[in-house]
Design a protein that fits this description.
about 170 residues; alpha+beta; about 25% helix
Length: about 170
């Protein structure tokens, strides 16, 4: 059977509250997220979901493919935000390889930033590796502006760019 990748119509966007015990229905999704994190990111950039998501100011947004042939929803993308009273930090954004360049990350970020603006957040900040051109282009196209840089942030000769999105002008 040849499988075609989902359109936006087959994706479900979920905000999961995992500050308490992971519910049995959420465990397969968390297992997929942890597997993707280990596979995609270098060890020193991997997110510790077990401890970090228990913090009150941390939020996980997940996109699932609702038409996975096996019956279980398949992980498409996830993002982690850390919030303060007026700002948010986009700590992690990951779209799995087969789903990239389909507008999923853009839609996910735009929906989340609209919610954050309604909650009174002033801006969203992030750090991105200067060499990750697709990520930089995505963030710039949404309205993030480069406001700083930090040499060797991700390791020797790996510069991080600090980018900020003003939510007052977001639309």
């Amino acid at each position: 059977i040849k499988r075609s990748w989902p359109s936006m119509a087959t994706c479900a966007f979920w905000n999961l509250d995992l500050r308490e015990t992971v519910k049995p229905s959420q465990q397969p999704v968390m297992d997929q997220i942890k597997h993707a994190e280990r596979k995609i990111f270098p060890r020193n950039e991997a997110f510790d979901f077990d401890s970090e998501l228990k913090k009150r100011n941390t939020e996980l947004i997940v996109v699932l493919d609702r038409v996975e042939l096996s019956g279980d929803p398949a992980l498409v993308a996830y993002a982690v935000y850390v919030h303060t009273s007026k700002a948010s930090l986009l700590q992690k954004l990951c779209v799995l390889e087969p789903y990239r360049r389909k507008g999923i990350a853009r839609r996910m970020l735009q929906q989340q930033h609209e919610k954050l603006a309604l909650r009174g957040r002033r801006n969203v900040q992030l750090w991105v590796d200067e060499e990750r051109l697709p990520a930089k282009q995505l963030y710039s196209s949404i309205g993030f502006e480069e406001v700083g840089r930090l040499e060797d942030y991700y390791g020797p000769r790996r510069t991080a760019l600090r980018m900020v999105l003003d939510l007052y002008s977001f639309g």
